[in-house]
Design a protein that fits this description.
By secondary structure, this protein is mostly helical. The chain folds into 2 domains: 82 residues, SP0561-like (Orthogonal Bundle); 180 residues, Four Helix Bundle (Hemerythrin (Met), subunit A) (Up-down Bundle). The protein has 12 helices and no strands. The chain is globular and about 65 Å long. It starts with a helix and ends with a helix. Bound molecules: fe (ii) ion (FE2) (2 copies). One fe (ii) ion binds next to helix 7, helix 8 and helix 10.
């Protein structure tokens, strides 16, 4: 088993596809991940499983890769108690999670904006324009820039998990770009397909950051680095203050408009 811990996960899944299904059960998304050169040992570390889950996961993987053999399983690592282990973020990381909250509220309204979009309506085109402005300015220039320019710079840029996160950002940007081009040519189907693609990438990306990346980063940052992050994020917040307020109120207005339309429809 020790040998497998030092093997890239994609190589293990390639030889033993059932391992991918076992990882999926633990919500460890190595199968759809486009990087996937993480070692099995890294995955156990990054996902910070409970000792019980780690033991069961290892036993199940051992049963797939070496069936019928008595595998020498690694001892689960000692960790903080379960109650304090899950998602207690440092202050700067908490700020990013709150920004995710705003982006998730936008993503929650997006399906009804898409469903009722009429390319002939200037109001609908304006709504999509506003949504794309939120995506480019708030989600990308503000939030993703904080991550890429500040947070990620505290870690080794060659880490697979960071490559995977940057790739998600790029995929989101490509969908937003394509949605903008579809809007310019009045292509309703193109807008819908690309906004749906964007929502799919971002929803999963945010889940990975909230549940895996940020807790793992918090465990690896020193107090001095947390302080540095806090100060640098605050400087960005101050520089972006006017726009931040504008986009926060945009999400609220979008939710209100959506609720009104839905109530009109149900009347
Ligand atoms: Fe991100
Ligand atoms: Fe994020």
């Amino acid at each position: 088993m020790e040998r497998y811990l030092r093997t890239p996960i994609k190589e293990i899944i390639g030889k033993h596809p059932a391992v991918g299904a076992v990882l999926e059960e633990y919500r460890i998304g190595c199968v759809p991940c486009s990087v996937g050169t993480c070692l099995l040992a890294d995955i156990v570390e990054i996902h910070d499983l409970s000792p019980e889950d780690e033991g069961t996961l290892m036993a199940r993987i051992a049963a797939v890769v070496a069936p019928g053999q008595v595998a020498a399983l690694p001892e689960p690592r000692t960790r903080r108690p379960e109650a304090t282990r899950k998602y207690s973020y440092s202050p700067p990381m908490k700020a990013l999670v709150e920004e995710h909250g705003r982006i998730k509220r936008f993503l929650a309204v997006l399906p009804s904006v898409i469903d009722r979009f009429d390319a002939r309506s200037e109001a609908d085109r304006g709504l999509v324009r506003g949504g794309l402005d939120f995506v480019r300015s708030y989600a990308d220039r503000f939030h993703h820039a904080k991550e890429e320019d500040i947070l990620f710079s505290l870690f080794d840029p060659d880490l697979d998990i960071l490559k995977a996160m940057r790739e998600d950002h790029e995929r989101g940007r490509a969908f937003a770009r394509a949605a903008g081009e579809a809007l310019a040519r009045g292509d309703g189907e193109g807008i819908a397909a690309n906004l749906r693609g964007y929502a799919g990438v971002l929803s999963e990306h945010i889940r990975k950051e909230d549940e895996i990346l940020y807790p793992w980063m918090d465990r690896n940052l020193s107090m001095r680095q947390v302080g540095e992050l806090f100060a640098r994020f605050r400087a960005v917040d101050e520089r972006f203050e006017e726009d931040r307020k504008k986009y926060e109120s945009f999400v609220g207005r979008l939710e209100d408009a959506n609720a009104e339309t839905l109530s009109e429809v149900s009347r």
